[in-house]
UniProtKB/TrEMBL annotation, chain A:
Source organism per UniProt: Ammonifex degensii (strain DSM 10501 / KC4)
Record-given protein name: Amino acid-binding ACT domain protein
Domain of life from the UniProt record: Bacteria
CDD domains linked: ACT_Bt0572_1, ACT_Bt0572_2
Gene3D superfamilies referenced in this protein's UniProt entry, alphabetically: VC0802-like
Record domain ACT: where: 5-82
Record-linked Pfam families: ACT_8
PROSITE patterns: ACT
From TrEMBL, chain B:
Organism of derivation: Ammonifex degensii (strain DSM 10501 / KC4)
Domain AMP-dependent synthetase/ligase: 83-283
Biological pathway: Aromatic compound metabolism; phenylacetate degradation
Gene Ontology terms: biological process: phenylacetate catabolic process
Protein name (database record): Phenylacetate-coenzyme A ligase
Length: 143, 432
């Protein structure tokens, strides 16, 4: 149930994000979700793509500092109050969320939330027990 | 050892030899170089006033500016027909400095360089790859003649073309590598990228010089290339590479005192400093005929170690050059050398750190920014993790330097790679 996320170190200067996007485009890699965590000097770009291994290699070859990180995806209903119970379930199980970002899938009434947690296996169990669907990596990559 | 007799002369014999040669050099310079004659006369000194080695302190210094002002051949002590080789600096900061060698001088140079290679037990069995620049720069040809004198198999690759360097190293079975330490790091980096393991190579030793480097960088090079890494020292004004070199004890560099007479002075006052005290290195050549140099101020910061060395060589040692009076930054009154920053980064577990010191002046205050490339081995996926890293580097550097710095994490390859001397400083202070 582990989704491979690409993390890229980027300096805060113009054109860096465009360079990543251009590179992935040239390899025909499709970006499914994207988030940036930034400070005044640098940012960490996080990407979910359809072919993570290939994107990782391409970025590395181009000299980016890049890593593959294991994250977890959970589907929540796309309506008010859809997300809260999932987070509560994790909190009650004493699971720590290191970061999270969401995206809305095109053909469903579900929103997808990507989570980095301290204990992935337990988080999957907790979320499924609370009635949430945890899509498989292939489902995420092929959205 | 290449020349055990010369390298293990008793101290008495050495002192006697040095004095005899100093007298002869001073007379030779006085009689044949109008510049020296004039300077000695201004200082009220005659060659016969040199009666002991101590008397050297009455002689005036020679500086790089003196060399430039006498461009091109003003300091040569023999007619050009006796000069068989000329080398020169790049002249990036003014007129180049030009030096000349007679046939005998080339012989001396080959001898001291052979002794230097002998520090790594070089023999005719060795394959020596010389990746110092050939041409006007003394590095390449200087090492070359020494290696040939020993009878090593020499591969004169010169600098650059890194992938080919690695291919030749592997295919020709290079055993000893000679280049700048920063280029050795870069070679190791590219080898890793190409998937070439040091185990595929026969490399066993490296002689690295032409720029200051640190103990930490030695550990990196030794573990990444699987070799013994030795520090060598030299400068074209004195002869080129081969003025001094580390033995396998790695506790200071033996200066070939039968050819070069070292002093350490206070760079501010010019007064000689006692052994052990750090200051500017000054050399007088003792055997050179074409281009004798009296009390040349090297601008390199080091100290002398007179205690005997376990290797059995009797020649005095100098400490690793910590930096230069001209690459030493003075930040808010504190002396800062790039090598200190490098030590910190290596101690924090960085492999081959690429860093740059950027100095600015903001509201009349010096600000030092240390740029550090984020390599994959230190990259963390979380902002907090990277900020902690920044903070840790900052704290450690501040503890070493005693001044506040700003650390900035930058993307790989932001800092220019070098195939010669690494550029570690960008000084943007406008000191008008």
């Amino acid at each position: 149930m582990t989704v491979k996320q690409i993390s890229v170190f980027l300096e805060n200067k113009s054109g860096r994000l465009a360079a990543v996007a251009r590179l992935l485009a040239s390899r025909g890699v499709n970006i499914r979700a994207l988030s940036i965590a930034d400070t005044s000097d640098f940012g960490i770009l996080r990407l979910i793509v359809d072919r993570p291994e290939e994107a990782y290699r391409a970025l590395k070859e181009e000299g980016f500092t890049v890593s593959l990180t294991d994250v977890l995806a959970v589907a929540v209903p796309d309506r008010p109050g859809g997300l809260a119970p999932a987070l509560e379930a994790l909190s009650e199980a004493n699971l720590n969320i290191e970061y999270l970002y969401a995206f809305v899938a095109r053909h469903a009434d579900q929103a997808l939330v990507l989570l980095k947690v301290n204990d992935r296996e337990r988080a999957v169990k907790v979320l499924e027990e609370a009635g949430f669907k945890v899509p498989s990596p292939d489902e995420i990559y092929s959205l | 050892m290449w020349n055990p007799k010369a390298e293990c002369l008793s101290r008495e014999e050495l002192e006697e030899l040095k004095l005899e040669r100093l007298k002869s050099t001073v007379r030779h310079a006085y009689e044949n170089v109008p510049f020296y004659r004039r300077k000695f006369q201004e200082a009220g000194i005659k060659p016969e006033d040199i009666r002991s080695l101590e008397d050297i302190r009455h002689l005036p210094f020679t500086t790089k500016e003196d060399l430039r002002e006498n461009y091109p051949f003003g300091l040569f002590a023999v007619p050009l027909k006796e000069i068989v080789r000329i080398h020169a600096s790049s002249g990036t900061t003014g007129k180049p400095t030009v030096v000349g060698y007679t046939r005998e001088d080339i012989e001396v140079w080959s001898e001291v360089m052979a002794r230097t290679l002998g520090m790594a037990n070089a023999s005719s069995e060795d394959v020596v790859q010389i990746a110092y620049g050939y041409g006007l720069f003394t590095g390449g040809l200087g090492v070359h003649y020494g290696a040939e004198k020993i009878g090593c198999t020499v591969i004169p690759t010169s600098g650059g073309n890194t992938k080919r360097q690695i291919m030749l190293m592997r295919d020709f079975g290079t055993t000893i590598l000679c280049c700048t330490p920063s280029y050795a790091c870069y070679l190791a980096e590219v080898m890793a990228e190409l998937g070439v393991s040091p185990r595929e190579l026969k490399l066993r030793a490296g002689l690295f010089g032409a720029e200051p480097w640190s103990e930490g960088m030695r550990r990196e090079i030794e573990s990444n290339l699987g070799i013994e890494a030795l520090d060598i020292y030299g400068l074209s004004e004195i002869i080129g590479p081969g003025v001094a070199a580390e033995c396998l004890c790695k506790e200071g560099l033996h200066i070939w005192e039968d050819h070069f007479l070292p002093e350490v002075i206070d760079p501010a006052t010019g007064e000689p400093l006692p052994p052990g005290e750090e200051g500017e290195l000054v050399f007088t050549t003792l055997t050179k005929r074409g281009f004798p140099v009296i009390r040349y101020r090297t601008r390199d910061i080091s100290f002398l170690l007179p205690e005997p060395c376990a290797c059995g060589r009797t020649h005095i040692r100098m400490g690793r050059v910590k930096g230069r009076t001209d690459d030493m930054l003075i930040i808010r009154g504190v002396n800062v050398f790039p090598s200190q920053i490098e030590e910190v980064l290596l101690s924090l577990g960085y492999t081959e750190p690429h860093y740059l010191l950027v100095v600015d002046r903001e509201r009349r205050l010096d600000v030092l920014e240390v740029w550090v490339e984020v390599s994959e081995d230190i990259f963390r996926d979380e902002v907090r993790g990277l900020e902690e890293l920044e903070e840790k580097i900052r704290r450690e550097i501040e503890a070493v330097l005693g001044i506040a710095v700003k650390v900035r994490l930058v993307e790989p390859k932001t800092i220019q790679r070098s195939e010669g001397k690494a550029k570690r400083i960008v000084d943007r202070r406008d000191l008008k």
